[in-house]
Structure formats: C-alpha cells, structure tokens
C-alpha cells in the first residue's frame, strides 16, 4: 500500500523567476525509508514542507495513506495529516524533560495509553534512564533520539526528517544512522528524509530520489543509482567515476584508451556515447594484450583501498587519466598499471 504519493507537484514562490520544485512525482510504500537527495537549494526541503503542510503547492496533488491532503481546492492543515516531523535543529522544548518532550504530542490519548506509547518508544530509542534529563544535559545523538521518539510516539502514518545527521559529529554518525534505521524498521514506520550526503542514503534508504534545481533526475534503490546513474550529475553526486567519450563500433566502444569490449547490448540508435565506470570496477592484471597500460602519476592511501591515477598516452589526441581503486596492499613500485574495466559495469549515460 502507498503511504505517500506526490503527483506533478510544482512550487513557485512569488518573488522567484523559476519554480523551486517542478513537476515532481514520488511514491512511498508502507514501511519504506525514502531519501530526497540533492545539493543545498535544490528544492528537497521545500518538498518536505509541502508534504508536512507547511507550504502550499502551486500545482499538483499530495496523497497520504490514500487520502488527498493537497490539491485543487483541497488543503489539510499540518495537524490533521498525522505526520511526524524531526527537525534539523531537533526543536526540543528546553524547559521540558525528555519524558515531557516525548509525551507532549500525546494529549489526545488516555493517560494509560500515552504512558504505554512513551515507555515503548523510550525503550526502543535507547533513552531509558534519561527520562528526567533536560535537553541541555544531553549529547547531540541523545537529542536526536528524543526528537525521533517524540515524532514516533503518536504512531504517525509517516515520519519526515530534515537533514537528520547535520548536527552530529562524524564519529557518531555511522552508529546513529544504523540506530535510526533499526528504530524505523522495528516500528514498521514509513519515513522520508532529506539530505545532501550520499553516505546517509547508502546507510539508511530503501529508495532515493535525486533532485537537481527542483527537477527529478532519478529514483531507484541506492545500489542501482550508484551502479547505473542516468546522467553525469547523478554519477558525480554518488562519488568518483571515470567519464569516457566513446564511439560505437562492431568491436565495442571505441575510446581514447582503445577498444573497450563488452557483452552488454548496446542500443542500436546510438553512435557516440559517454561512459561512466566507477574506480573499483577495474581489474588489475599483469602485462597483457587484453589490458590498457597507464603510467601511475598519483597514488593515495585511503585506508580500506588505494587510489591510483593512471595516465594513458594517446598518440592521436590528449592523454586520458583514469582513477582506479585497488587493494591497499597492492605494490605499485613499477609505476605502470595494466588494467581493464569489468564487463557488465560499463554504464552508458544519457543527456540531462
């Protein structure tokens, strides 16, 4: 069942020349965690605010749990949408304890039910023993947990997160990402969060929608977007990659490196394409006729891998630099690198 549907949502602010969000569509199924990913100012927070009911779309429809909450002549106020929200700055009441913050939105329940809901989410959020503390007595991670517990205590149909990890130090982020995903999944909740950090997406999201300048670029699972980005913007956003111009030939892709052979089916209507190959999708081999040869011009130790920059000479034009990720223990003293791309890992990009 779909918990959230956005249909052709557009938002244009009166003073702006262009829409902040243009013709955006999204479907979120029950139990999914979906990320809205993009640079600052791309429109992702505006989308979140329209879902919550803090902004009115210029055009389009929003459905929550199958019911239209925003459309032509229809607008449901935030308080009746039954949506939980975790703000970027947590927005905890400084004069209230952890218990009082979490139970603040449970006034409509009986005392017994409110207590039961609060105790359950406190246990699940790892806040047991902190109920009497005030926000100034909590760490950033604990404040995040309280904000999440407060949003989830009323058992909303949908939870929205605005940059949930921006105020947490990098040392604690990995654990916090895992904890939040576990809490959401263990309560069978549905969540949408906005972020500019692909590490958030890869750690938490079941699905991600990439946004550029208010426009939808690609929606899919994180692994599919990483391995099969549709264009240069998406490919770049998800980490380092090698862009290689190629012409289609009977042998494969004719590139400045030489012919890249592939068993993948190449669309018949294409003549020239732009390829994207991730740095880890190269196999390093001893000297071989099947491999390309490059001079190692840069070598960087990155912890769990080593990054090589290999320059391949092209007598007919400019030299090509290829970035390759290899084992951190690989001995590169020979200053030459023989490599080939892994078949099935060569991605053809389309125009944006």
Q: How would you describe this protein?
A:
By secondary structure, the chain is an alpha+beta fold. Helix content is 22%, strand content 34%. It contains eight helices and 21 strands. The protein has a six-stranded mixed sheet with strand order 7-8-9-3-10-11, sandwiched between helices. The chain is elongated. The two termini are 32 Å apart.
In brief, what are we looking at here?
This protein has 352 residues and is α+β, with helices and mostly antiparallel strands. It is 22% helix and 34% strand.
The ordered string of helix (H) and strand (E) elements is: EEEHEEEEHHHEHEHEEHHEEEEEEEEEE
**Total number of strands:** 21
Q: Radius of gyration, Cα only, in angstroms? A: 25 Å
Give the CATH superfamily of the largest domain: P-loop containing nucleotide triphosphate hydrolases
Separation, N- and C-terminal Cα atoms: 32 Å
How many structural domains in the coordinates? 2
**What's the CATH topology name of the largest domain?**
Rossmann fold
Largest sheet: 6 strands, mixed
Percent helix, as a range, is 10-25%
CATH class of the largest domain: Alpha Beta
Mean pLDDT: 91
Strand-pairing-aware structural class: alpha+beta
């Amino acid at each position: 069942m779909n918990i959230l549907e956005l249909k052709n949502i557009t938002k244009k602010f009166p003073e702006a020349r262009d829409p902040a969000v243009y013709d955006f569509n999204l479907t979120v199924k029950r139990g999914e965690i979906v990320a809205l990913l993009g640079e600052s100012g791309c429109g992702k927070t505006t989308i979140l605010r329209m879902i919550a009911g803090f902004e009115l779309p210029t055009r389009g429809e929003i459905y929550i749990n199958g019911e239209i909450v925003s459309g032509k002549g229809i607008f449901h106020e935030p308080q009746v949408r039954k949506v939980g929200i975790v703000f970027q700055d947590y927005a905890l009441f400084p004069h209230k304890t952890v218990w009082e913050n979490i139970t603040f939105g449970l006034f409509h329940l009986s005392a017994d039910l409110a207590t039961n809901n609060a105790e359950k989410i406190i246990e699940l959020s790892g806040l047991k023993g902190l109920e009497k503390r005030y926000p100034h007595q909590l760490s950033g991670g604990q404040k995040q947990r309280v904000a999440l517990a407060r949003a989830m205590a009323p058992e909303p149909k949908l939870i929205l997160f605005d940059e949930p990890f921006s105020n947490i130090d990098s040392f604690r982020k990995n654990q916090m990402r895992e904890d939040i995903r576990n809490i959401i999944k263990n309560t069978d909740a549905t969540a949408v969060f906005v972020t500019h950090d692909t590490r958030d997406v890869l750690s938490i999201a079941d699905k991600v929608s990439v946004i550029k300048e208010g426009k939808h670029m690609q929606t899919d699972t994180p692994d599919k977007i990483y391995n099969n980005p549709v264009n240069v913007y998406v490919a770049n956003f998800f980490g380092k990659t090698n862009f290689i111009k190629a012409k289609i030939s009977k042998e494969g892709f004719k590139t400045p490196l030489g012919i890249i052979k592939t068993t993948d089916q190449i669309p018949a209507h294409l003549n020239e394409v732009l390829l994207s190959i991730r740095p880890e999708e190269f196999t390093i081999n001893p000297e071989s006729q099947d491999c390309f040869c490059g001079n190692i011009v840069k070598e960087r130790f990155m912890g769990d891998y080593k990054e090589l920059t290999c320059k391949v000479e092209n007598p007919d034009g400019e030299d090509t630099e290829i970035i390759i990720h290899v084992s951190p223990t690989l001995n590169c003293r020979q200053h030459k690198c023989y490599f080939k791309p892994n078949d099935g890992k060569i991605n053809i990009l389309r125009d944006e």
